[in-house]
Amino acid sequence: EAGVAQSPRYKIIEKRQSVAFWCNPISGHATLYWYQQILGQGPKLLIQFQNNGVVDDSQLPKDRFSAERLKGVDSTLKIQPAKLEDSAVYLCASSLAPPTQGNEQFFGPGTRLTVL
Amino acid sequence: SQKIEQNSEALNIQEGKTATLTCNYTNYSPAYLQWYRQDPGRGPVFLLLIRENEKEKRKERLKGTFDTTLKQSLFHITASQPADSATYLCALTSGTYKYIFGTGTRLKVLA
Known about the structure:
The structure holds two protein chains of two kinds. Chain A is an all-beta fold. Chain A is built from no helices and eleven strands. Chain A has strands at residues 5-7, 10-13, 19-24, 31-37, 44-50, 53-56, 65-68, 75-79, 88-95, 106-107, 111-115. In chain A, a hairpin with a 6-residue loop joins strand 7 (65-68) and strand 8 (75-79). Chain A is globular and about 40 Å long. Chain B contains no helices and eleven strands. Chain B is an all-beta fold. The radius of gyration of chain B is 13 Å and the shape is globular. In chain B, 0% of the residues lie in helices and 56% in strands. Chains A and B meet through strand 5 and strand 10 of A and strand 5, strand 9 and strand 10 of B.
């Protein structure tokens, strides 16, 4: 079974520029998550989709971050404009169903973003 | 506010010993608790799920406990090996719709 795919793996941009990340979850997984992981910290949920609907985006800085999951499959996360504090690893994960039954999350390798 | 704490300092142990990692939480009533392993440059990998009423779960050399009275989970790796060196994350959910992760503990097993 193919895992969660993410691209690019690395991205370096200057502040105020825009950037986009792409995620392709495991086939058949209805729930998709985007996490931000700052060095030395645990992953922080930015947005969670159930199929193509948003379940939670309470920690997404909506003035600069946006995400979509068209057709309930792959997803993109965009930052515009980027700030220095956005430097982090952006992890995409998917699960067969929501966490209501403790479903295992499968993570992609992440995109390491550096904002200069 | 909800808080999940793991030992921020790295844990160094000798090969063959049992490693014990701690996850404490406050202002939270989780129904499920998961443990993940994360290697440098990689995403977390699921290890164990412990349900609120299970109290304990075992998988090969791994054992996780879930004490809702102490608001704590312990994660044990018996007969540890250098290959077990990684960061271990706990994640909790109240069973609604999202998981909250701890900060992780870095484990180093010395040969």
